[in-house]
Design the sequence.
């Protein structure tokens, strides 16, 4: 292919993370010719600097904590984790940051991969600038899908770049355990990485501007996670901002807004995400570079019938699984429109990402795990639903006590009083990560409480909390 | 109270296991005066010789197996379990076979407890023979509920009693780890107890008459559990019956139908259950002593408008959680009939144990865990449903690989082709126990596949197998 060659496809996907891969998979399965453009590693943030490495770091922490809470076993696992073994396993799970396997998969489904920076140059046209500076123009007969994701957003602190701060990328790929680590932020990345590195041997200090951790979940989630982090030896300081930061002889020095000086070997900023849309040629089609892209429920960008924005870039739900869900729907919608068939775009239709509104699940892989599906009480009220929340102390559930000695955890169910369906569920405690899909099905399936009484939890699992929640609602 | 005193209640419950307790709880909550009769420990089989002690024995086994499969931790947990610590914890969970706590609870809800053997002496009349031989007659204005459960059924082998074989009771309450243990049977009790005692230090031999273990589940469940038991060091022999058994100088000697002689220190017969209805006066009301009691979906015994049979005794589903479910429904039905209100007894109504037919869940706490909800493929076909089963190798799910190194497991979804709802789901593998409630909600909720596509599994949990199952069905 030469600089001037024009390559025409039905669909061009910009960004080959899990979201872009899933769009391409679906359009290809529908018989549409598809190109995918990737400027870094095929497989994206999730495979190399997010879900996979973070969970590879966290699983041993959780398994060790579970073992420590188990009679007859706890004595054997009092020592520290074998950090080199954990890091090596994490390297294995990121394929040592090589994407050969993913490239093979893209080829296997008959999608053409273009390496380089993809930029829109006008409607239906993407120019790819390869690593060698070579340019190729791709034309999309049907659709362009922007799946470029998000990056860590750093606060505008003077001199921050000179500190070489960690973002989620360095926190998930570091090859050495820092002796002391400052974590700035209180969201998912912050608490997961604080949990991982504290267990791997760092002395972690968490600095949170707000009043607590995990503030987008029910309040008790952040409370229980903060309590456990503190018990694990981390120093969690809420209501604390970083006023300035620098490196002195290699040591990070952060000064808080209260004037306190905190030293560390590394500092992680987990202070939010920004869309990776600043350099993809949005200006050529009248959109604002660096902005989140607004879409309808078929993931089509408002006002552009050929342009889709899928995954983090649309800011609907910054979660890999939700992006993949959108990708399946966007791919199907592109195929349906290409084939001239009517869209099934009503609520919960095959071409509507309805779950993005009120049925999004999330699992935070800390110890304890925090998992939610649907809306929190505050979100449900804000959305105008007439709801009632019921809480259950998970330690009162037989299966929880059997799972872990001294079990601590909490569950909340938010019930819509109009039709008695579940708007949201939150579980926090050891072993709850795999419990949340039940809630996701209940919320997305709009299963009424009267029927949930017939969904019998197996005894003695922790899932018996469902019965306790139903009883709490009935007896409230 | 004296021999001649007649005590009149609205409801008399015979059997104070979890099932009887739940019936009493519901009738009491409805304002009906209630008596409960118990010949052994209040709390029943589940609390002292089944669910609680078995799970207290098994949880350390599973946690250790999980830890061994975790990089960075496996080195610390190669040694054997601390058996005395596990047994002591089990003792704690059975309250050392004392029922004070449960008695307090019964009193706290305002139910009168009668200790002794309860026997029907005619319609609505129960005679209780106390431990001291004292007799009391209870009259039930509204209903008598038989909740006496089941006991281990021993095969008619000559001399078996002299061997003092273990049943589920001894297997869950033993204070010493036998050096060698023979387990006869291949069902849930057999595989769970084989798993527990092998891990606690016994050399276990499992003798199964049939072709495999866990034959009421999907075939791969028994296969994977047998494989793991064998890897753990147990000797699993299928197609093998016990022809004779005896004790020689304290040593158990079992001779198989093939003439092989197997020696052991103890032998557990886990060869089925029999109803505890042989000595409850059934003959006084025209029913057959020792029989399972047939009921309608409100749990009322066929032909007796005042008599209910709830839990194992009705043979609908011999599981604690299902018995408790029936108990809630029976209690509500008794209360509704007592109050003269119409029953909500249609399918999935408040007074119909509809879930007993096709929406029963079960978790087998072995390593790997085996969990199912609803019907197996064979059961669905036998029930006349037009179904298709799709399977997924759980090791292909990212969350499974992250959960355990070398993950082995399998999932099956049985889909009804008429209306594309899920008839049954089976998961076998580490960490699947809490995953099954999602399937229970899908099956009981009759959530169609088209909606399950919108129930997004959180990434990277093992629950992402739901997506793989939907894809397998779509692409089949």
Sequence:
């Amino acid at each position: 292919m030469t600089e001037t060659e024009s390559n025409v496809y039905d669909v061009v996907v910009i960004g080959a993370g899990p979201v872009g891969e899933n769009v391409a998979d679906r359009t290809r399965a529908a018989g549409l010719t598809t190109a995918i453009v990737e400027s870094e590693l095929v497989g994206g943030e999730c495979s190399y600097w997010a879900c996979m490495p973070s969970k590879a770091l966290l699983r041993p922490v959780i398994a060790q904590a579970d073992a420590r809470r188990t009679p007859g076993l706890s004595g054997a696992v009092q020592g520290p984790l074998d950090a080199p073994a954990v890091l090596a396993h994490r390297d294995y799970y990121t394929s040592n940051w090589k994407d050969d396997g993913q490239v093979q998969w893209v080829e296997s489904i008959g999608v053409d991969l273009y390496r380089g920076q993809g930029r829109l140059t006008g409607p239906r046209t993407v120019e790819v600038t390869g690593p060698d500076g070579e340019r190729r123009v791709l034309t999309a007969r049907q659709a362009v899908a922007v799946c470029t994701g998000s990056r860590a957003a750093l606060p505008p602190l003077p001199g921050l770049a000179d500190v070489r701060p960690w973002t989620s990328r360095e926190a998930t790929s570091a090859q050495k355990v820092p002796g002391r680590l400052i974590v700035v932020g209180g969201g998912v990345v912050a608490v997961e990485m604080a949990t991982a590195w504290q267990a791997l041997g760092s002395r972690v200090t968490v600095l949170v501007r707000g009043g607590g951790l995990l503030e987008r979940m029910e309040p008790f989630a952040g409370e229980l996670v903060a309590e456990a982090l503190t018990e694990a030896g981390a120093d969690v300081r809420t209501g604390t901002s970083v006023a300035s930061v620098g490196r002195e002889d290699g040591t990070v020095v952060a000064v808080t807004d209260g004037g306190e000086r905190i030293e560390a070997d590394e500092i992680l900023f987990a202070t939010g995400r920004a869309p990776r849309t600043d350099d993809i040629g949005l200006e050529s089609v009248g959109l604002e570079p660096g902005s989140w892209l607004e879409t309808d429920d078929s993931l089509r960008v408002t006002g552009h019938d050929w342009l889709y924005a899928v995954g983090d870039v649309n800011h609907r739900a910054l979660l890999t699984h939700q992006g993949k869900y959108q990708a399946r729907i966007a791919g199907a919608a592109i195929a349906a429109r290409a084939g001239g068939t009517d869209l099934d775009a009503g609520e919960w239709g095959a071409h509507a990402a309805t779950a993005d509104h009120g049925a999004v699940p999330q699992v935070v892989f800390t110890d304890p795990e925090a998992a939610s599906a649907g809306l929190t009480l505050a979100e449900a009220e804000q959305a105008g639903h007439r709801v009632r929340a019921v809480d259950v102390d998970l330690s009162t559930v037989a299966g929880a006590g059997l799972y872990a000695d001294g079990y601590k955890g909490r569950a909340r169910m938010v019930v819509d009083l109009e039709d008695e369906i579940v708007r949201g569920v939150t579980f926090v405690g050891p072993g709850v990560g795999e419990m949340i899909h039940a809630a996701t099905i209940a919320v997305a399936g709009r299963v009424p409480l009267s029927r949930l009484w017939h969904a019998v939890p197996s005894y003695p699992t922790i899932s018996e909390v469902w019965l306790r929640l139903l009883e709490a609602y009935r007896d409230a």
About this structure: Chain B has 15 helices and 21 strands.
